[in-house]
Amino acid sequence: MSRMHIPAGQWRYARACMVCSIVMTQAHFRAEGCPNCHFLDLKGSPEAIETCTSSQFEGTIAVFKPQSSWVAKWQRVQDLAPGTYAVKVNGTLPEDVRQAMEDEGRPLIPRDGTATEIE
């Protein structure tokens, strides 16, 4: 199954990663983890999937060639894997995940619409 396609009857199981905003089904996150955020260890971890992804998101965009897409640049996903991305993801990452990302020097781009300009 391609990361870029969620069958029509499966959208109720769709979740968006709160770090990169890629949208996949819960089963896909469990089977493969997040293609962009390996450090979250989502593969095979229902608990991590529940805390680091959200079923509450708004709008989606399909990105086939992220590096040449102005929409991907606008959404700040131009350096990520091709796939379906949420325009806005509602939810908050756990503080321990946020702190681990900061300690490792990983930038956290808010996907909830609070960041409006590329720094």
Features:
119 residues; alpha+beta; three-stranded antiparallel beta sheet; two-stranded antiparallel sheet; 4 helices; globular
Give the overall pLDDT as a whole number.
Answer: 90
What overall geometry do the principal axes of the alpha carbons give?
globular
The stretches of 5 or more residues where confidence is low (pLDDT under 50) are none
Main sheet strand line-up: 2-1-3
Helix content: 10-25%
End-to-end span in angstroms?
35 Å
Write down how many β-strands occur, each being a DSSP E stretch of 2 or more residues: 5
- Specify the structural class: alpha+beta
User: What's the story with the biggest beta sheet?
Assistant: 3 strands, antiparallel
Radius of gyration: 13 Å
Structural overview:
With 119 residues, the chain is α+β, with helices and mostly antiparallel strands. The protein has helices spanning 26-32, 46-52, 70-75, 95-103, and strands at residues 14-17, 23-25, 53-54, 57-63, 83-89. Strands 2-1-3 form a 3-stranded antiparallel β-sheet. Strands 4-5 form a two-stranded antiparallel ribbon. β1 (14-17) and β2 (23-25) form a beta hairpin. It is globular and about 30 Å long.
Brief characterization of the structure:
The protein contains 4 helices and 5 strands; from the N terminus they run ββααββαβα.
Element layout with pairings:
Elements: E1 14-17, E2 23-25, H1 26-32, H2 46-52, E3 53-54, E4 57-63, H3 70-75, E5 83-89, H4 95-103
Antiparallel strand pairs: 1-2, 1-3, 4-5
